[in-house]
């Protein structure tokens, strides 16, 4: 997960609170945990992940409104969530894991996308054909791998759509961040892009990679990722 808490907009002239999108994280976490899998948490330096305050809006929980309180309680009180390992340690322990999930939120566009451990984790899990789940903005992390080393070339992926990026920037954040146009960047690396309608549930699986579009895509992402884990 990202541990960033501030996003710069308008060429660094405006600051906005950011972090991990709570429902994107918690819906995936609960679905996997409920199947009996053991889950470890990791952030760049081992600092507790910040939650994007935008993700507390009831609109993002309208499909599962009762889960919001449960998710907030987990975020505030879970010892494991509050004490993640570092990404460096996660790499050292990578052979212990069968899957990797990175939830969305703009925070990862601040730290994970620049962290030297991010491409190493992704390349390692791809090389060993382990399950990889990237939610909403998280597919952008594939751009941290140089084109000549990128194991995902030729894969079909999904992510937050260009229209959704525009909508977020125009009406929610009211400013453009440095890192954007995720789909365009990934297509330049040789990946194929598929999308659903703006604000609609959409996720796809190609081989060992599951990617999803937005905070409303939790159920389909979980279904595809759990099938992949099995």
UniProtKB/TrEMBL annotation:
It comes from the Bacteria. PANTHER family: GLUTATHIONE-INDEPENDENT GLYOXALASE HSP31-RELATED, PROTEIN/NUCLEIC ACID DEGLYCASE DJ-1-RELATED. InterPro entries: Class_I_gatase-like, Prot/Nucl_acid_deglycase, ThiJ-like. GO terms for cellular component: cytoplasm. SUPFAM superfamilies: Class I glutamine amidotransferase-like. This is DJ-1/PfpI domain-containing protein. Belongs to the peptidase C56 family. HSP31-like subfamily. One of its GO terms (biological process) is methylglyoxal catabolic process to D-lactate via S-lactoyl-glutathione. Keywords: Lyase, Stress response. One of its GO terms (molecular function) is glyoxalase III activity.
